[in-house]
From TrEMBL:
<keyword id="KW-0547">Nucleotide-binding</keyword>
<dbReference type="GO" id="GO:0005886">
    <property type="term" value="C:plasma membrane"/>
</dbReference>
<dbReference type="InterPro" id="IPR027417">
    <property type="entry name" value="P-loop_NTPase"/>
</dbReference>
<dbReference type="GO" id="GO:0048500">
    <property type="term" value="C:signal recognition particle"/>
</dbReference>
<feature type="binding site">
    <location>
        <begin position="247"/>
        <end position="250"/>
    </location>
    <ligand>
        <name>GTP</name>
    </ligand>
</feature>
<keyword id="KW-0342">GTP-binding</keyword>
<keyword id="KW-0963">Cytoplasm</keyword>
<feature type="binding site">
    <location>
        <begin position="106"/>
        <end position="113"/>
    </location>
    <ligand>
        <name>GTP</name>
    </ligand>
</feature>
<keyword id="KW-0687">Ribonucleoprotein</keyword>
<dbReference type="InterPro" id="IPR042101">
    <property type="entry name" value="SRP54_N_sf"/>
</dbReference>
<keyword id="KW-0378">Hydrolase</keyword>
<dbReference type="Pfam" id="PF00448">
    <property type="entry name" value="SRP54"/>
</dbReference>
<protein>
    <recommendedName>
        <fullName>Signal recognition particle protein</fullName>
        <ecNumber>3.6.5.4</ecNumber>
    </recommendedName>
</protein>
<dbReference type="InterPro" id="IPR013822">
    <property type="entry name" value="Signal_recog_particl_SRP54_hlx"/>
</dbReference>
<dbReference type="GO" id="GO:0006614">
    <property type="term" value="P:SRP-dependent cotranslational protein targeting to membrane"/>
</dbReference>
<feature type="domain" description="SRP54-type proteins GTP-binding">
    <location>
        <begin position="268"/>
        <end position="281"/>
    </location>
</feature>
<feature type="binding site">
    <location>
        <begin position="189"/>
        <end position="193"/>
    </location>
    <ligand>
        <name>GTP</name>
    </ligand>
</feature>
Amino acid sequence: MFDSLQSRLGGVFDRLRGRGALTEADVDEALKEVRTALIEADVELGVVEDFVKRVKPKAEGEAVIRSVSPSQQVVKIVHDSLIEMLGTESTGLNLGSPPAPILMVGLQGSGKTTSTAKLGLLLQTKEKKRVLMASLDVNRPAAMEQLKVLGEQAGVATLPIIPGQTPVTIAKRALASAKVGGYDVLLLDTAGRQHIDEELMAEAAAVREATNPHETILVADSLTGQDAVNIAKSFHARMPLTGIILTRADGDARGGAALSMRAVTGAPIKFLGMGEKLEALEPFHPERVASRILDMGDVVSLVEKATETLDKEKAEAMAKKLKKGAFDMNDLFDQLNQMKKMGGMQGLLGMLPGVGKIKDKLDEAGLDDKVITRQQAIIQSMTKKERADPDLIDGKRRKRIAKGCGMEVSDVNKLLKMHRTMADAIKAMKKGGRANPFAALMG
Ligand code: GDP
């Protein structure tokens, strides 16, 4: 996701960096290009204009232009504004007191039923909640059956189907069952509609009235771009949405819907559907997404993903190190190993700082693993001391390391820069007192 935007913006900021000292005109020119890049990514025009209006005075200020690192400052301002646009922080589900009814609404084919089952599975496995799901789609018995089958696959309970009941009756029966059964969460999969249709909208509103849901989640198809945003607007006007699940984000290179959704509807994206499998639902983190778009590397996601496949002992050792804010070359080497092991290179590569721009070329040539092996060769060419304390590595050492692995000094520099970005992010994480990403994994 966001691949094309990432490469466009990468180019803009590279040009800016190349200029060293900046004038107002330089920044103005760069922002024009940012504007075009956002429009090409299918971001809603009003959102783009707002964005540029917000960024411009900050980025063209004296403080930035006269600063030591003006281009980095501009990138940071764009980064922070992107986060604002996407919603300041990741907002989980408001579950409140059990059983928490959650209403799932959306057009037919958006991935609503699949997302309901995905959410049920996620709440059950990651949050240890007991989940009951019920389909309210009385018009399409196949839809009810589909939820039942998905529930069986996911190991999530579904309400027994009784033909002939109205959606409100089913919803009330589901709520009663959830109470009696001691469930924490009740997912209500409302009837899909082909387009915004008053009758079905009224039906969902009636269910909403009868169940007083803690969350009303719209499921929308990311691939439909601005249509998805307009659909969200229409739903929101009729019943306040508390969150959005964007499906098919796995196939959406532009990401316009994701980028516009929050600004246009006010409702935050809570999850992204990243594939057809029931496990393919990811919490949405605005900060990580903004970093990924600007190719600043999504270190936290990367580390989290890597740890999921690490063995427990290694994960604990790594967590201890990270708590201290430390991340040396040995850790980077281990991370690279994990990446190789995990196979899912495409997604992982996008998380590494600086890799985004060359990713397309790598994809074409199928070079992913080779790149990692080369990076590891550079690390292997370092002495033990250097690996433990990369700050030691001066110009002379860089030359020796490059020679040792048959690569250029620029390759060594690139690796050192990547390491620095990751180490800094981890240090910042520690300073900010952010939750340890490993905590959840270690129970
Ligand atoms: P509904 O009519 O809105 O309930 O849609 P379904 O849940 O039946 O989904 C329609 C199709 O989209 C199914 O084939 C799903 O497997 C697929 N689908 C749902 N979510 C995603 C996703 O995040 N990514 C991909 N690639 N396919 C998805």
